[in-house]
């Protein structure tokens, strides 16, 4: 079945929403903004990976390369995939990987800005990646 128009639209939409939200945070948030007692919007420069792990700037291009490999790999897998649910999960992962990779290329770090309670700050690309991976786990568990 491969990726169809709606999947490419989803990739572009998620990618653009992620990039616009990061640009807005980078431009306008200098101090944390508390929306609820457990929810803050803040500007975090994350040179590491998920949950702030591996905070080494020297790994920047390795993380970009991994994102490119993931994107290319999923595009190849999508050519043979017939399950629309799985293709949607691939789309979320591709959009998230592209969003964070572009941050690393342009800024040298990923912009994180949502802080919920004690959880490390994250962004829209992280959310898309997580939802895509969870959807793949769900599908594999229920097949």
What would the keywords be for this entry?
single chain; 3 strands; 143 residues; alpha+beta; 3-stranded antiparallel beta sheet; 4 helices
Sheet with the most strands: spatial strand order: 1-2-3
Estimated structural class: alpha+beta
Which oligomeric form is depicted?
single chain
Number of helices: 4
Whole-angstrom Rg: 16 Å
Number of strands: 3
Would you summarize the structure shown here?
By secondary structure, the chain is α+β, with helices and mostly antiparallel strands. 59% of the residues lie in helices and 13% in strands.
How does this structure look, described?
The protein has helices at residues 5-28, 60-78, 84-106, 124-141; strands spanning 33-36, 39-46, 110-116. With 143 residues, it is an alpha+beta fold. Strands 1-2-3 form a 3-stranded antiparallel β-sheet. A hairpin with a 2-residue loop joins strand 1 and strand 2 (39-46). The longest helix has 24 residues, at 5-28. The radius of gyration is 16 Å and the shape is globular.
Describe the secondary-structure layout.
Layout: H1 5-28, E1 33-36, E2 39-46, H2 60-78, H3 84-106, E3 110-116, H4 124-141
Antiparallel strand pairs: 1-2, 2-3
Helix pairs in contact: 1-3, 2-3, 3-4
């Amino acid at each position: 079945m491969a990726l169809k128009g709606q999947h490419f639209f989803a990739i572009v939409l998620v990618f653009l929403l992620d990039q616009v939200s990061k640009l807005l945070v980078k431009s306008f948030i200098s101090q944390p903004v508390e929306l609820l007692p457990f929810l803050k919007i803040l500007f975090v420069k994350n040179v590491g990976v998920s949950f702030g792990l591996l905070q080494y700037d020297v790994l920047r291009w390795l993380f970009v390369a991994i994102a490119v490999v993931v994107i290319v790999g999923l595009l190849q897998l999508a050519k043979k995939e017939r399950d629309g649910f799985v293709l949607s999960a691939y789309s979320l992962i591709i959009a998230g990987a592209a969003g964070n990779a572009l941050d690393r290329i342009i800024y040298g770090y990923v912009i994180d800005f949502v802080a919920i309670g004690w959880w490390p700050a994250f962004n829209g690309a992280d959310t898309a990646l997580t939802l895509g991976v969870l959807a793949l786990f769900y599908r594999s568990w229920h097949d």
